[in-house]
Design goal:
carbohydrate binding, alpha+beta, 4 helices, 30% helix
Length: 172
């Protein structure tokens, strides 16, 4: 008899755990993104690897832009800093890269596959930079003088190039 009494309890526990898991994976909860804090390097540039290291040493992670809400939060943050109002071109490293497998981009900070399609037109294109360097890391870019298709979109670049970068805290 005791075994049958545990079955409904186990079913309830599993149901609650499934609901909590679904809520934890909901990337559309805007309030979560407002709890993040950001840091961006407006005075110096680093290559992708050094930018990752810089963020981690400060207890932060290189930026991931996994959906429209996160993109809007970053745009709002950069706008409030005044940085973008004084520049025609903005490029910041993100954690997106295809270093593990060409053409398969992942956010290195979360391990998630890049599914938010916010690439600049004709990107990612893995352009060859020199005889042995391809584009494997992604920047978030803005070009004031170009069409709207380049407004805060992703572009793959050589990981060894130096750009500004954005660090973020992940929500708890």
């Amino acid at each position: 008899m005791a075994r049958f009494g545990l079955l409904p309890v186990c079913a309830i526990v599993l149901s609650v755990l499934a609901q909590l898991s679904a809520q934890a994976n909901d990337d559309n909860t805007f309030a979560v993104f407002r709890q993040k804090s950001y840091y961006f390097s407006d005075s110096f540039k680093l290559n992708w690897f050094k930018a990752m290291e810089y963020c981690r040493k400060r207890g932060m992670f290189l930026l991931s832009v996994r959906n429209t809400q996160e993109r809007e939060a970053v745009i709002e943050y950069l706008g409030s800093s005044g940085y973008t109002s004084t520049r025609k071109t903005v490029m910041f490293w993100t954690s997106a890269n295809d270093l593990g497998e060409e053409g398969e981009f992942y956010w290195s900070t979360t391990g998630e596959h890049v599914t938010y399609s916010n690439w600049s037109p004709s990107e990612p294109n893995n352009a060859k930079v020199d005889d042995c360097t391809n584009e494997d890391c992604a920047v978030l870019e803005y070009w004031a003088d170009r069409v709207a298709g380049y407004n805060y979109t992703l572009d793959d670049r050589s990981c060894m190039r130096e750009y500004h970068f954005i660090c973020e805290t992940l929500p708890e």
